[in-house]
Design brief:
Blueprint (H helix, E strand, L loop, with lengths): L19 H20 L10 H21 L4 H65 L1
């Protein structure tokens, strides 16, 4: 009875070969990407983590493309690339936030400076009027 049924193909799990270069690049990328990602969470100083995370992302992307072209496993390179890119994104958000805060502070200082100049001018005019009135009283 089983002899009449068509034979099912047998699937055998095969592992892709690992390349030493791909693994080394992926490990470098995941180490520096993790440092960049963790560093990006430090307030204000996290903006500098972008200088660690960008090269790590480049290494991760390079390892991913090398793994694809050599037919190697792409799991570790992809994870390394994603971790690095997250570090870049969080650092970039901090840079934008710090830039916005600096611009707002600069605008506030300029507005305060303009207000102080107006007040100074108004006080000088008031002093001049009082001196003029004093002079007129002394003349009479």
């Amino acid at each position: 009875m089983n002899e009449n049924l068509p034979q099912q193909p047998q699937y055998i799990a095969t592992q892709r070969p690992e390349s030493g270069t791909v693994t080394a690049l992926a490990v470098v990328s995941i180490i520096f990407g993790t440092i960049g990602l963790l560093g990006s969470f430090i307030p204000c100083l996290g903006a500098f983590a972008i200088w660690i995370a960008i090269p790590a992302a480049l290494c991760g992307a390079g390892a991913t493309f090398m793994a694809k072209s050599k037919g190697c496993s792409i799991g570790l390179p992809v994870v390394a690339f994603i971790v690095s890119v997250l570090g870049v994104i969080i650092s970039a958000v901090q840079i934008v936030a710090i830039s916005g805060a600096a611009k707002a502070a600069n605008d506030g200082v300029q507005a305060l400076d303009a207000e102080m100049k107006r007040d100074m001018k108004a006080r000088q005019e008031e002093v001049q009027r009082q001196e003029q009135l004093q002079n007129e009283k002394n003349e009479q």
